[in-house]
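Re-running the complex after MR caught last week's input typo. The corrected sequence lines follow. Everything else is unchanged.
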Amino acid sequence: MKRLLLLTLVLLFAASAQAVEYRRIGQDYRNLAMGNTGIVTATSSSALFYNPAALANIFNWWVDFPMAQVEYTKDAKDLYSVVQSGGFNLETQQEQLDFMNTYMGSNPHVRVDLGVNAFFPLSDKGSTMGFNYTYEAVLDLAVRNPVAPEIDAYAKLDHVRQFGFSVPLGLGKWVLGLSAKRVERQALSFNYGLQDALNETAFPTLESAGTQGTGIGYDVGLLYRAPSKARLMYGLVWRQKIDLGDAGDVPGELAAGVASFQDLGFMRWTAALDWRDLTYQQGSPGDRSLSRRTHVGMEFGFLPLNKTNSLFSLRTGYNQGYLSTGAEIALGHAMVLGYTKYTEETGEWAGQVGSERTIIYLSLGF
Amino acid sequence: MRFRLLFFLLLVFSAWGLSSCKDGTKTHEAANLEACKVAIDNQEWDAAVSSCAEVQTDEGYHLTAQAYLARGGVALFDVLSAMTGDNSSFSTLFNALPTTAAQVADIKLGLTALAKIEAPDSFVYTEGLLASAMVILQALKAELSLDVAADGTVSHCASGGSIDGCSFGLTLSDTEYTASDVVAGAVPVTATFSGLSNDLYNSLCDTQDSTSDSAKVVSGRDSSDTYDVNVTEDFTVNGCTVATTSVLWFNQWASTGLATTGSTLTALDQLKFYSSIDTGNNFSKEVSASLLNPITISICNSDAIPTTASGDLLVNDCEMLSFFTNLSLN
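Corrected-run output:
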């Protein structure tokens, strides 16, 4: 292993770590720009990740091929620059100590999503089928504790296949959504400290410490479209926990949301409020922080192109108490270019340790 | 339209209210630990000490100890890094010794926190050994005029195996004898040893005691074989009982632990000061100046100043002087 271990991880898994972040798969640039709301407002492949009943928000058939999303922190950019200029080796004790010394306090995070989506509305009342095929790679690395440094690392590669549909019930006020997802995961999670370096413990690699697992889970969602001037919609979703064995799990969840959609002619305005993880499946034992589970956001779509897309959109919100913003240019479904800045809580309570992240999104389709 | 405007304003104000929706304080047990870690990450040592102290687990004790050690100026990472590899050196350690009473107090609080850990591993003992050794070296520095060369070799006043160059050396009242010096058939000479400093023992043991004797007389002949010489030992021997709060006790605790858990850092062996000090050795000095045959003067003697035993948590000048003349760090 005379190669650049982290370079390999960065390229394959975008790797380095935090222990207390709420980890969810398929977090979407649009929803994150809106404070990570989406239980009611999801309008893309994110519906399959947020609430399958929200597939009813999609009224045009649509294929994304491909969809690509890159999320990173400033530290990740810096680390990538180092890797590009020759990188570093973590094979020997001295190299490990030098790395700890150089990157103390660094906390790079990278997430890469690559996928294909397809949506087929079967009626204009909200009956829609959706398919999604996603590779999601995440790398979190944190070099902590200047007294006795340690490297916390978490890297994973999820291979997600999912199918879902939404069905209006009765006259269409209620929408039921169901989805099934199969997740294959390769993961590497470790803490390598000064003690390990001094004891000349071999640095963990995918070969020596990697885990993998596969699981299937189901989501059941509901939407209620209130017939009022406020055009309020309410959403509820229950997500089954997906056990991936040694590779961890995709936590189960009960989440609720409310949103309002206002069509103002040249502009469309969407506002949403979500409460996630109402049964406290995420976080450390005893974590009952409601602030950390509260999401609020809005979107202004200018020059609507159809019922779901606008030529230009601006978004903002609060995710776990942190401001989020985003913008998007959409040429129908042919090309969507999105940009999001948001902050994710990586500490133990809302407002403790925010990780500022940038997302760039591009999808081509028809 | 008016309704929509009102609704919009309502939502804007709701969002504004939620924007301050941060907890602002610890909400659960794990949050205490994370607060402690964040404070350490930010090198906010006062905050780290108070946050970490709230975590009553082994990890909490360990981090508390590290926060205290850091506040006490112990650069663990730098010192340990410098002691690894083929070019290991004591220079970094020696240059990082505590210089103030507050730093020493913090280091001792750190050691106390380390000792609370129920299942300590080799790293805990390594930290304990290093931190205790730094306070011990600081205490020895003044007493022995310790110095470190550029190559990391440590020298001191007793480096050559003799205490003659030290401020606390054994002195004779007279080394040249004439007929006028003779009293009652012999030349009376006094060998004086006033003891190592009380500060040294207080620093090492947190206690200090003292024993004096001036009764023992050792006889010899002068070098011209003309006069009898009676050397009266006028000794004050200082010492201490190693308190469980002291750095020597922690040094012993860490040394014993490392013997069990092992360590790849061989340089640490030189910092196991307790076992090098509390040896039961009795320092003695051969006096030959102006004498026909050398006489041996032992600092401890069975008449009044007993020699302490090895590993009995009692330390005195006899053992300490023996330790000094064998002290070598490189």
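None of the earlier attempt is carried over here. The beta strands of chain B are 147-148, 154-155, 171-172, 186-193, 209-213, 217-221, 228-241, 284-287, 295-298, 314-316. Chain B touches chain A through 47 residues (CB under 8 Å).
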